[in-house]
C-alpha cells in the first residue's frame, strides 16, 4: 500500500498541532560552525514541533564505504585507522559545542560505534555472505553519529533534543543498499516512537537514509536517501511541512554549479520536482515526493548557510502555464541496450523477454521502446547490464552503447506524448541527441546523448530556453 492510500489509517489521535520535519544534509552538518547554524535554525522553529532528520557529515558515507573495501582487503585495524580522521571530525564538533553529560553521552556512543564497526569488519572478512547486510549496518553509523551528536548540541544549547533511532521508525524490505519502505509498518512504528517524545515537548533527532527490516536488520534507502527519510517521516506524522535544508536556497532552473545564472523556481508541482530529481538534479532523492504527494504535504528546499535567502516550495500545482519550460537537468551513467531480435524471439514476444531479463539482473530501466524489428532500452549502466546482455545473446543481435546521458527539460508539457517542443529541438540543433519517445511524463522531455557532451548541451538549452526568458 502506498502513502496516503488509506487516509483513515493516517488519522492522528487528538488535536495536537501538526509537526514540522526539518532535514539537514551532509554539507549542513560538515563541521562545528555548520552544526551551530543548524541548532540556530531549529531554535527559531522550536514552537513548530520540529522532528529533525540529519545526514552523515559530508564525505563520511563515502569514507565508510571505502573502509569496507579496506577491511575486506587488509583487515579491520586498517579500516578503523582510515576512519579515525572522520571520527575526529565528529569529536571536534562535540568538543566545541557540547559539555558535561551531553558530551559524555556522545563520547560513549562513539566508543561503542568503533567497537561495533570492528566486529562488523571482522565478520564481513570471515564470512563473505554477510557483506550485503553488514555493509548497510556499517554505513548507518554516519547518520547515527550525526543524530546523536545533534541531540547533544541541542541539549547543550538549552533545547530539548533527544536522539531517536531511525531504525525504530522506518521499516523496509530486505533489499540492502536500496531498500523499499513498508508503508503501513512505517506509519505505525514512526508514530509509536516519535509521538510520545513530541507530546513530552522533546525535539527528536533521527539519522536519515537508514531503516530496518521487520526482523531488525539495518537497511539503507539508496545514496542521497535522507531526503526520502524526511518525507516518509513527514507523511507518517502528517507534518504541516517537510523542510529540506541544504547548501542552495531552493531548486533552480539548472544546477547552479553548472549554470551560474540559473534562477530559483519559487513553486514547483510534485511531478515537476520528481522528474527533476529522477533525471539528475541531485538536490532531491528521486523518491522524495512519493510519500507526501497524496497527503498534499508541502516540501520546501532551503539554504542552511543563508536561512533568510528564500526557498522553493513543492506543492500539488506549480501554476506554470501550459507549454512553460522550467528547468534543465541531465543524468550521467546511462547506457542504451539495442536488440535486433532473431526470428524465434520475435515470435515469443521480444519485449516481454527483454524486460524480464533486465529485471532478473536488477538492471534499472528508465525507458523502453519497441517495434517488431528492434528494441531499445535506456538503462542505468553497471555490471548488471553486461550480465543481462550475455543472457540476451540468443535473442538476436545485441548492442550496448555505454557512456550515455539523459538530458531532461522539465516543464508543463501536458499529455501529448509524441510531440517535440519546437523550441527545445531548435536549441539542441548543434548536438547529436535522440529524443526518447513516447515521452514518459507530462512534465519532462528526454533526450539520450553522449555523456561527454551532456553538460554543454544542458548549458546551451538553459541559456536559450530559460535564461533568456523575460
Ligand atoms: P545535501 O548534502 O544537503 O543532501 P546535495 O549535495 O545532495 O545536498 O544536493 C545539493 C546540491 O544539488 C547543490 O549543491 C547543487 O549543486 C545540486 N543541484 C543539482 N541540480 C540542482 C538544481 N536544479 N537546483 C538546485 N541544486 C541542484
Ligand atoms: N549520507 C547518505 C549519502 O551520502 C545519505 C544522504 O546524505 O542523504 O548518500
Ligand atoms: Mg542529498
Please give a structural write-up:
The chain starts with 19 loop residues before the first strand and ends with a helix. The strands form 3 sheets. An 8-stranded mixed beta sheet has the order 3-4-2-1-7-9-10-8, with helices on both faces. The protein has a 6-stranded antiparallel beta sheet with strand order 12-13-11-14-16-15. It has 14 helices and 16 strands. By secondary structure, the protein is an alpha/beta fold. The protein has 2 domains: 309 residues, 3-Layer(aba) Sandwich (Carbamate kinase); 141 residues, VC0802-like (2-Layer Sandwich). Strand 1, helix 1 and strand 2 form a beta-alpha-beta unit. It binds adenosine-5'-diphosphate, aspartic acid (ASP) and magnesium ion. The site of magnesium ion (MG) has 3 residues, from loops.
End-to-end Cα distance: 44 Å
Order of helices and strands: EHEHHHHEHEEEHEEHHEEEHHEEHEHEEH
Bound molecules: adenosine-5'-diphosphate, aspartic acid, magnesium ion
Separate helix tally: 14
Average pLDDT number: 93
Low-confidence stretches are: 7-13
Q: Globular, elongated, flat, extended or rod-shaped: what is the shape? A: globular
- The proportion of residues in beta strands is 15-25%
Main beta-sheet strand count, sense and barrel state: 8 strands, mixed
The strands making up the biggest β-sheet line up spatially as 3-4-2-1-7-9-10-8
Helix fraction, binned, reads 40-55%
